[in-house]
């Protein structure tokens, strides 16, 4: 089976799938595009004009990162969702919640003024506070075993790690369990490999191109 993951270098949702591919050692091809000037073939295969996409055998296309990750998990040994149906459903619920947290990291970077910047930071902090309330002793969300929910939140933590240096934001410092979860995930080779080397520079370019409030903190 030939697998091609299509996305941009800055997308947090593709990083979810890259981490899963890396963790499970799945052979794949990465294709990066520019969403501001996508190739013609992209419009033909992306129903919403969004990334990531997983193209299977250069034919069928799967979209939405959570669905892509479940497919990757289904076709390979060693399941990354809990076996218990209730715990699996809880994980899926928090994965969905994590999508809004991913989006907030983007909104923080493009916020046009101090008030909206502070509002986005406060909302993300509150959301992660909700996650803090359900975390156990770690090192991962479900305990000792890495799961798809860890792959879903790792891109958020990649961004917050960059924000520490780039924007002097320390959102997880007041959340000890989330902070430990973040550090445990960032230490994993599969998470490190999902972060393109130029990601911080891409964030700088995004902030500057939008003339966002965060530019004053660079």
Secondary-structure element order, N to C: EHEHEEHHHHHHH
Biggest beta-sheet profile: 4 strands, mixed
Gross morphology is: globular
Which CATH class of the largest domain applies here?
Mainly Alpha
> Tally the helices: what do you get?
9
Gyration radius (Cα, Å) is 17 Å
The largest sheet has its strands arranged as 2-1-3-4
Please count the beta strands (DSSP E, at least 2 residues each): 4
Level-2 CATH architecture of the largest domain: Up-down Bundle
Provide the structure class.
alpha+beta
Q: Poorly predicted ranges (pLDDT <50, ≥5 residues)?
A: none
- Classify the fold: give the CATH topology of the largest domain: Glutathione S-transferase Yfyf (Class Pi), Chain A, domain 2
**Domain count:** 2
Strand content: 5-15%
What is the CA-CA span between the terminal residues? 44 Å
Summarize the structure.
This protein has 218 residues and is an alpha+beta fold. The mean pLDDT is 97.
Topology:
Blueprint: E1 3-7, H1 12-24, E2 29-32, H2 40-45, E3 53-56, E4 60-63, H3 65-74, H4 85-110, H5 114-134, H6 148-166, H7 176-186, H8 189-194, H9 199-209
Parallel strand pairs: 1-2
Antiparallel strand pairs: 1-3, 3-4
């Amino acid at each position: 089976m030939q697998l091609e993951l299509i996305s941009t270098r800055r997308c947090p949702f593709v990083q979810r799938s890259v981490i899963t591919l890396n963790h499970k050692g799945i052979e794949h091809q990465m294709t990066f595009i520019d969403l501001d000037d996508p190739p013609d073939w992209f419009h033909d295969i992306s129903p919403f004009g969004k990334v990531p996409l997983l193209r299977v055998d250069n034919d069928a296309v799967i979209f939405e990162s959570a669905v892509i990750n479940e497919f990757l998990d289904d076709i390979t040994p060693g399941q990354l969702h809990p076996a218990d149906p209730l715990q699996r459903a809880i994980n899926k619920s928090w994965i969905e919640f994590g999508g809004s947290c991913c989006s907030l990291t983007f909104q923080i970077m493009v916020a046009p003024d101090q008030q909206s910047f502070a509002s986005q930071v406060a909302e993300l902090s509150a959301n992660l506070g909700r996650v803090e309330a359900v975390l156990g002793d770690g090192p991962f969300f479900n305990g000792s075993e890495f799961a798809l929910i860890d792959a879903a939140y790792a891109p958020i933590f990649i961004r917050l790690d960059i924000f520490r240096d780039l924007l002097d934001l320390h959102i997880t410092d007041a959340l000890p369990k989330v902070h430990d979860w973040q550090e445990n995930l960032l230490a994993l080779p599969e998470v490190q490999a999902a972060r393109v080397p130029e990601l911080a520079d891409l964030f700088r370019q995004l902030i500057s191109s939008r003339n966002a409030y965060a530019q004053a903190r660079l």
